[in-house]
Amino acid sequence: MRNMKKIVTILSTCMLSLFSFTFVYGQDIAAAIETYNAGATALASNNYVAAIESFNKAIKMFEAISELDEDGASAFKQCKEILPQIHLRYGKELAVNKNFDNALAQLDKAIETAKKYNNPDVEKEANELIPQLVMAGADDNLNLGLFNEAIAGYNKMLTYTPNDPDVYLRLGIAQSKLNNEDAAIAAYLKAIELGDKQDAPKMLSNIYLKKAAAAFSDKNNSEALAMAKKANQYYETVQGNQIIGLSAMQLKKYDDAIPALEAYIAQSNDSKNKNAIIYNIAAAYEAKGNIAKACGYYKQIVSDPKYKAAVEYKINTVLKCK
């Protein structure tokens, strides 16, 4: 009789434990579904931060339950499907608002969760968007004058598109703004190597043209000539030809001076110094012994009061022009 009572007590205890387990188990599923619903509500109002937090919490809760009923399994599946999409959607919205750093962080999370929960479409789209946002962020920093940040962005962009001349061009611009001349030149040269035949040559020419102008101003004609010729090597300009011509005249390098000054006359609409340039061309031809050319140029400015006396002397007495 005593043994019978003991068995009944044990059975009663087991039934109570089973009831408690079933009750708690049901509570756990209900709590997880409630958390999932909170995430869905937050998502409906575009509260991405709260939605992400709720869905992550719900996933952990579902994972802790050994066996899910039909509703729990469905909610668990949807959590895993939706979470990568939320990160992607949030990243896009941040990008529209030019919050590029946080946008990129969300796209990284989109890729991470897409891999984890097997969503190749989200993974592919996020991977395609990332380089676009890196470039957009670097351009934004460049426009804002945040040149170090822009340089970091362009260098990162080169890990995605290492042969893009436009990235090197913009990198050169940012380096130039910081007076990092060697780095700027290297970037422009790489852009040219990769096919930029217009913008990068202009930028590179401008670097050497500034050097030429500074040297010419300091009456360092040798340096001015060398830098101006290098500038024109990449992109010919009116100012480049002027500096080449005038510095070469000072150095008596007439073969450099004549074509540069003739090109300057053809390119320039500046009538203020036109006759001065013509006088220099005539003098250069005279120095080379080309009398016909010298006479032709001197005659063009014989009516200019500033040069009239000197030119008439050249035409009538020195060269005896016909």
Describe this structure in words.
With 322 residues, this protein is mainly alpha-helical. The protein has a domain at 22-142: Serine Threonine Protein Phosphatase 5, Tetratricopeptide repeat (Alpha Horseshoe). It has helices at 2-44, 48-63, 70-96, 100-116, 120-143, 147-160, 165-177, 181-193, 199-217, 221-234, 238-250, 254-267, 274-288, 291-300, 308-318. Helix 6 runs antiparallel to helix 7 and helix 10 (221-234) runs antiparallel to helix 11. The N and C termini lie far apart (151 Å).
Main sheet summary: none
| Low-confidence spans | 1-25
The CATH architecture name of the domain at 22-142 reads: Alpha Horseshoe
Q: Which geometry do the CA atoms define? A: rod-shaped
User: From the helix content, strand content and strand pairing, which structural class follows?
Assistant: mainly alpha
Helix content: over 70%
The fraction of residues assigned to DSSP E strands is under 5%
H/E element order: HHHHHHHHHHHHHHH
Helix segment tally: 15
Output the CATH class name of the domain at 22-142: Mainly Alpha
CATH third-tier fold name of the domain at 22-142 = Serine Threonine Protein Phosphatase 5, Tetratricopeptide repeat
Quick description:
With 322 residues, the protein is mainly α. The chain has helices at residues 2-44, 48-63, 70-96, 100-116, 120-143, 147-160, 165-177, 181-193, 199-217, 221-234, 238-250, 254-267, 274-288, 291-300, 308-318. The chain has a domain at 22-142: Serine Threonine Protein Phosphatase 5, Tetratricopeptide repeat, CATH 1.25.40.
